[in-house]
Amino acid sequence: MRLASKLTKKFVPFLEILKLKGSLVDVSTILVTGAFTGTTDQKIILAILSGAMIHSGGDIINDIYDIEIDRICKPKAPIPSGRMSIRTAWLYLTSIVGAALYISILLSRTYFSLLIIGVLTGYILYSHPKFRFKDIPTLSIAIIALYFFLESLGVWSIYSPISKDALIVATYVFFLTFSLVFMKDFRDVKGDINSLPIMLGARRAAIVSSILCLIPLILLGALYIIYGWLIILIASLVFAGLISFCLRILLFGDPVSRGRELKNKMILALTIPNILIFALDKF
Q: 35: which of 161, 210, 220, 258 is 20 to 30 A away, CA to CA?
């Protein structure tokens, strides 16, 4: 029992640092793209695995470079708490990224190439101390959204050549992500160097975030007009219901003190409608 407990204790930081909750966005991006390609098979599982691993790798490198900030806002996280060393984190990151890229090149050279671009922008430009675009609020969120844009195009390339439809779906994914991810910054106001709530103040940032929430509804409406799928209309209604919970916190609550709850609800609004489109498309 003691041996099992020790092994579990050592394993937990490796799982925790992956921040798998965020990988739901990869799942939803890949599934909604699969729905629009018109055909999917077991390759989509491998695509989800590789995409989520690259995403988690970005979280690891972000934690490596943000150790001083995380000592303030995330002191119990694996690296600042001392449960994982910087060296171990680098080795873990390398193995995850290597495995993800190997899987991706088996699926599609285009997918592999686009993930490489995602690594260069999401790892180096976003997190590296020489660039740290993550400290520029709008640009940082644009880089995050760009990764999912590239991921969507890459998954499309597994099944079909990249076309106008691929760009339409990837653009929807980009703006869906860009419009909602600003909400994550309310949680870490105390530790952030710069973010939308710090730049504008929590109240104004909440109003801006609330306005941005309307963009995905407009995009879903445009997709419905283009493709005429009833499931897109259903997804729009589901999105409206889910985003209403975020709006209550942003406009009528305290988004800073309820930052964790806001982020969780944001992830649901970001993912559930897309997963629903994929699921209903199979019926």
A: 210
pLDDT value at 84 more than 70:
yes
What is the C-alpha separation between 45 and 134, in angstroms, rounded?
30
Amino acid at 179: S
List the domains of the chain with CATH numbers.
21-281 (1.10.600.10)
| Nearest residue to 33 (alpha-carbon basis) of 179, 221, 162 | 162
Rounded Cα gap, residues 268 and 239, in angstroms: 9
Place of tokens 């106001």: 189
Contact 145, 215 (CB under 8 A): no
Task: Spell out the alpha helix ranges (H) of the chain.
Answer: 2-16, 23-37, 43-65, 67-73, 86-107, 109-119, 126-127, 137-159, 164-180, 196-200, 202-212, 214-227, 230-252, 259-281
Alpha-carbon gap, residue 152 to 26, rounded angstroms: 9
Q: Are the CB atoms for 152 and 33 separated by under 8 Å?
A: yes
**Whether residue 268 has pLDDT greater than 70:** yes
- The tokens describing 98, both together, are 């290597």
C-alpha–C-alpha distance, residues 24 and 232, integer Å: 19
Residues sharing a CB contact under 8 Å with residue 283, sequence separation 6 or more, in sequence order: none
* Mean pLDDT lowest among 5-9, 118-122, 239-243: 5-9
Write out pLDDT tens, residues 11-24. 899 999 999 888 99
> How far is C-alpha 244 from the geometric centre of its chain's CA atoms?
20
